[in-house]
Amino acid sequence: MHYTNKYFPGFDFILLQIVLQEIEIMNQGKTVFAQIMSLIPRYEFDKCVKRYNGNRHAIEFKCRDQFMVMSFAQFTGQDSLRSIDATLVALSSKLYTSGIKYIQRSTLAHINGTKDWRIYHDFGQILIAQARHLYRKEPSRLDVDGIVYAFDSSTMKLCLQLCPWARLHHDKGGVKMHTLLDLRGSIPTFVYLTEAAVHDSKAMSLVPVEPGNYYLMDNGYVDFKQLFLHFDRQRAFFVTRAKDNMKYEVIEEHPVDKSTGVVSDSTIRLTGLKTSRWYPDTLRMVVYEDYATGNVYRFLTNDFTHSYLTIAELYRERWQVECFFKWIKQHLNIKAFYGTSQNTVYSQIWIAICDYLLLAIARKMFHIDQELYILSSVVGKVLFERKPLGELFIKPKRPMNDSDSNQLNLWGNFFGQ
């Protein structure tokens, strides 16, 4: 079977195994950083650069050089251009073997402000498609047939005086990252960057919806018109939380085992003046009480097939997208930005996403038996080590020294051997 990306139909996944074999041969003796960067499909990367004339007028430093330096800064947790510059100088003797060029901070600031951020957005789509292919058989914890996605947003604060384009409210600014996460491997399949003032529901109409799959959302995305037209009419399932002021009537009550924490399972119809027109069909509402905290949750869904416990467990899986935001902020440094222009901020976010995807791809291709957050925290400390990625977490065998040999002889003599 051929797997292709609908956005980039030329990217053929039947070549993945051949590429993996070639990478294993090429990576012998390379640094950890060079091995990760060798996963970049050069032809696809160059097409993205060419699409936006990224290397026009570039003599010494090209988009690939920018990507390498910015990735190095992300993996090592640099918090400023000055810090990047100082670290590159300190490690100047090791840069060449890893494919990194030293770029002065003033030059890097200029490049980040002028190289079109859409280059890395488009390249991210290539890596997303590759990562999804690798994680397509990842087992699901829940017994549902479709792919389960979680959709949420996270806001990264910015100084409004320095970034007037990123208005939030009053004297605050920020960028909001709307993300659709494929829970098989926690792969971000759709990322949409906006000003922080943009409401979450505004991004719902842009989410790519696939029939038969599940979309988990918080109550910030309860827009009944979008839920009906964009999800229900396209035969996709959603699970979200009801708002406290939702007006409805109960059509039918279904039996539940209250010892499981589920209080009720009902078929309802909206009765609000507008909401009844926006969503004219019936909905299912599962009320669940968390005995540990005493909190009561009302889950809304258009899935009338699976058990009420499955609906509650589906929503519980939404925490993975919150973990993704927390992880990418902590382990890939997007809390501190290396510039103030929109192009610089968007470039840094998309390069961080690309680095996340490269690590996810490396974890599968090199059969690394560690969680992604452990891999990322370790990689930053061993970037210039010449150790195969696949052997990074293999414990070394304890060598036998002379004292061990004498000890064996001693016990052998003791037992008359």
Fold and architecture overview:
Among the domains are: 13-121 and 340-391, no CATH class; 219-317, 2-Layer Sandwich (Ribosomal Protein S8, Chain: A, domain 1). Strands 1, 2, 3, 4, 5, 6, 7, 8, 9 and 10 form a ten-stranded mixed beta sheet that branches. The chain contains 15 helices and ten strands. By secondary structure, it is α+β, with helices and mostly antiparallel strands. Belongs to the transposase 11 family. Residues 28-101 form the DUF4372 domain.
In short:
The protein has 417 residues and is an alpha+beta fold. It is built from 15 helices and 10 strands.
List keywords for this structure.
globular; Transposase_11; transposase activity; alpha+beta; Ribosomal Protein S8, Chain: A, domain 1; 10-stranded mixed beta sheet; 417 residues; Transposase IS4 family protein; 10 strands; DNA binding; disordered C terminus; RNaseH-like_sf
**Main sheet summary:** 10 strands, mixed
Residue-averaged pLDDT, rounded?
Answer: 84
Q: Which structural category fits the helices and strands?
A: alpha+beta
Tally of contiguous helical segments: 15
SSE topology string: HHHHHHHHEEEEEHEEEHEEHHHHH
State the total count of DSSP E strands: 10
Give the overall silhouette. globular
- Low-confidence region ranges: 410-417
Instruction: Give the amount of beta strand, in percent.
Output: 15-25%
Helix content percent band = 25-40%
Radius of gyration: 26 Å
- Determine the N-to-C terminus distance: 62 Å
